[in-house]
Amino acid sequence: MQTMESTGGPYLNTAAVTSPVGIARLLQMTFGCATFSLVAHQGGFSAAYGTFCMFVWTFCFAVTVFIIACEFTRLHSCLSLSWGNFTAAFAMLATLMSITAAVIYPLYFVQVGCYPIGCQVRDFRIAASVFAGLLFVTYAAEVFLTRAKPGQVTSYMATVSGLLKIVQAFVACIIFGALVNDSQYGKYVATQWCVAVYSFCFVVTVVVVAFSVTGKTALLWFPFERSVVIYTFGAVLLYASAAVIWPVFCFDSKYGSPRRPGLCAKGKCPWDSQLVIAIFTYVNLLLYVLDLAYSQRIRFVSHI
Question: N or C terminus of the chain with fewer C-beta within 10 Å?
Fold first, then answer.
């Protein structure tokens, strides 16, 4: 008669749902499900803003369920991913996406009065907005709990520099959204240079994140750590040039308009898009400067 004996410890990892991070993920799953269920059942959504919010909530819910399932069953050890980098990167991305949806949905869909949508629909939308806010809090809590502590050996994406990479890519997506919204960036070669800066830095940042998440940094023929620092320094210089060029060619009276045109339609005004791009250019410049400063204090660990 054959007997079964355990040689590798328990098959299920109960810490995946009982630890502080595990509890935060269970709350994420609960709040995410409640949010998109309320919206889909009665709250309703429309246009690109509503579709974006529903995508955020369903996407974050699906990935969170996947993470919980993999950690609870220990199946993440079978995946060709650097699990610590993957979960840290997703938590930061989900935090940014969820706070964006938590602001957009009530801004466009919640109202004080009942007319014309009805009191029941209004109440469902208010409840969905509350759960959307709680969802953001739980993802931010996970980032706080899993962030790198001084002297701790941890995943690169859990460090300040790694988390900033996600924020930089997210801000770049906002810039791209404003660029395609009739920003007239093709009017001058100088503004086209700015678009090239945004695109190049976004692509390289995504590549850095991808190599960290997949755990393939050790396979590269060049020193990944040094290359990332050099790239970050280059990104600071590139964004500094865009931070000077874009406002000049958009808001100087010789090339553009220093003030918003009075006859410019709301939501379809190139000046508005140009202003958004200018603001977030300075935001990303600051993020890259902070990234460069923090990158001097960390060491990459590719196998975690």
Answer: N
Which alpha helices (DSSP H) does 74-188 contain, by range? 83-109, 119-146, 160-179
* Closest listed residue to residue 217, CA positions, set 77, 48, 85: 85
Whole-number pLDDT of residue 225: 83
Minimal CA–CA distance to 200: which of 247, 246, 238, 245? Answer: 238
pLDDT of the residue at 4: 45
Q: Is 275 helix (H, G, I), strand (E, B) or coil?
A: helix
**DSSP characters over 140-168:** HHHHHHHSPPTT----GGGSHHHHHHHHH
- Determine the pLDDT at residue 201: 98
Determine the straight-line distance between the first and last CA of the chain, rounded to whole angstroms: 41
What's the pLDDT at 289?
A: 97
| Longest Cα–Cα distance in the chain | 90
Which candidate, 273, 72, 64, places its Cα nearest to that of 175?
273
CA distances from 184 to 58, 190, 202 (A): 34, 12, 20
Task: Note the pTM of the prediction, 2 decimals.
Answer: 0.91
Q: What pLDDT does residue 8 have?
A: 52
Query: CA-to-CA distance for 221 and 24, rounded, in angstroms?
Result: 39
Cα 198 to chain center, whole Å? 16
**What is the C-alpha separation between 223 and 266, in angstroms, rounded?**
49
CA atoms of 161 and 296, how far apart (whole Å): 10
